[in-house]
Amino acid sequence: MRHVCRVIGLCLAAAVLVPAAAWAATGPYVSLGDSYTSAPLVPFQTGNPPGCGRSTNNYPSDVTRVIQPRTFTDVSCGSATTANMTQPQSVPGGGTNPPQFNALAPGEKLVTVGIGGNDAGLIGVAETCAELDLFSPTGTNCKDHYTASGSDPNVAAINATGPKVAAVIQGIHRRAPSSRVLVVGYPDGLPVDGSNCWPVVPLSSGDIAYFNSLEEQLNSVLSQDASSNGATYVDTFTSSIGHDACKAPGVAWVNGIVPNSVAYPLHPNQAGEQNMANQVLLAVG
Asked: What is the pLDDT at residue 258?
């Protein structure tokens, strides 16, 4: 068995080396997106303007270290929406991030884009849920708040995000027609098994299920947009299940409202960004 394992190990090593050699010829590579792409507070912060919160260990940087593209440009920026693909964005601390599409050129070979969460307003929903559940660990106060009129504005916002993301993908194709476009989805931030960790993350189990349903709807919209517009959807949700904000430090790949790792609240930490990079690499490979 030892000899068999050694042979298998050598074969696996060769299998890794061959794609790496092929990846080395890729690029130029451009990264577009919001804070889940830029990774604010994740060590180490870099780039201009500083208020965008780009990390040298965000998933685009992790991908770049593996595929070694001819050139790499990361223009992702915290709080970006689909509008900031074609419009400048003012950032905290002063400064302006130019329209992210300015980074695109006909020669690009790989473009990743992680966008839509701010258009749908999901971080604001999570914050509202935390406020409503702060003194109530049971029930569905947050869901009830949003659905009191019989229709859910968050579902409407997610559906309205779909055409905006589709327009982003089409805009990338027009500006970089030779590029492969990867639409990167959002990872799992809260338990999917019906549990909660109130008050560490002050959401009831019922409202965690509600928020997760919204995130999965958004990811579904992103997947459909990618499929309908000549792009590849990268699922980061499935692989991150079990590493949500309720897990212990070192296991959690995303921060809760009260951070337990070096990253922005309600955002992926360095391990979470690495997982997102792994999923992008699988798609590229």
From this structure: 85
45: β partners: 55
Which residues make Cβ contacts (< 8 Å) with residue 40, sequence separation at least 6? Answer: 52, 53, 55, 78, 263, 264, 267
pLDDT of residue 260: 86
Residues in Cβ contact with 72 at an 8 Å cutoff, skipping those fewer than 6 apart: 27, 28, 29, 30, 31, 60, 61, 64
270 vs 124: CA distance, rounded Å: 23
Domains of the chain: 27-284 (3.40.50.1110)
- 176, 100 in Cβ contact below 8 A? no
Which stretches does DSSP call E strand in 109-258? 110-114, 180-184, 232-234
Indicate left, alpha or beta for 267 from its phi (over 0: left) and psi (-120 to 50: alpha): beta
For residue 55, what are the β-bridge partners? 45
Tokens of 92: 């905290």
- Active-site positions read 35, 267
- Give CA–CA dist 24/27, Å, rounded: 8
The pLDDT, as a whole number, for residue 43 is 97
Contact (Cβ atoms closer than 8 angstroms) between residue 51 and residue 266: no
pLDDT tens profile 52-92: 999 999 999 999 999 999 999 999 999 999 999 999 999 99
Query: How many CB atoms sit inside 10 A of residue 253's CB?
Result: 27
Cα angle 82-129-204, degrees, rounded to a multiple of 5: 130
Query: Which residues of the chain register pLDDT less than 70?
Result: 1-25
